[in-house]
Amino acid sequence: MTDRQKDHLQSLGNNKAASIFDYDPSLLETFENAHPDRDYFVKFNYPEFTSLCPITHQPDYASLYISYVPAQRMVESKSLKLYFFSFRNHGDFHEDCINKIADDLIQLMDPKYLEVWGKFLPRGGISIDPYVNYGKPGTRWEQVAFERLSHHDLYPEKIDNR
């Protein structure tokens, strides 16, 4: 990453970066992909996601898994963490949170491919694990997205630890 690329990153290396606890997609920052001609996955695992139930206002906890194939822009990880913090006081259903995250990342980066999977801890004895993906229209990644979604839960995982 060149100094010029670093100049526009506000969160990385900033010890005074404030944690915002109300949903704010403007916290997300990008940098240039140094390898735009190569297809490769970037995966984020975030086991500390928190949001609020929009009805009861009780906290919901999840592990988030985000994988994407970058095009020209990539999301900066500290800004992603601050963005996740911004959901802490945000009231939305699990499915809405996961779709909102996908929409924000697609708008931010215009990736070739993206998937977001939230594995929420149970409340009331039920865990909810929404999954959403996206393949850039008109590319081979559009077909990859369809295939991955249509086969997503053919072999469900055994859940015995939550």
UniProtKB/TrEMBL annotation:
Pfam families, alphabetized: QueF
Source organism (scientific name): Sporolactobacillus spathodeae
Source organism, top-level taxon: Bacteria
Keywords, ordered alphabetically: Cytoplasm, NADP, Oxidoreductase, Queuosine biosynthesis
Broadest EC class assigned to this enzyme: oxidoreductase
Gene3D superfamilies: 3.30.1130.10
Residues forming the catalytic site: C53, D60
GO terms of molecular function: preQ1 synthase activity
Subcellular location(s) per record: Cytoplasm
Pathway: tRNA modification; tRNA-queuosine biosynthesis
EC number: 1.7.1.13
InterPro entries: GTP-CH-I_C/QueF (IPR043133), NADPH_dep_7-cyano-7-deazaG_red (IPR050084), QueF (IPR029500), QueF_type1 (IPR016856)
Name this protein carries in UniProt: NADPH-dependent 7-cyano-7-deazaguanine reductase
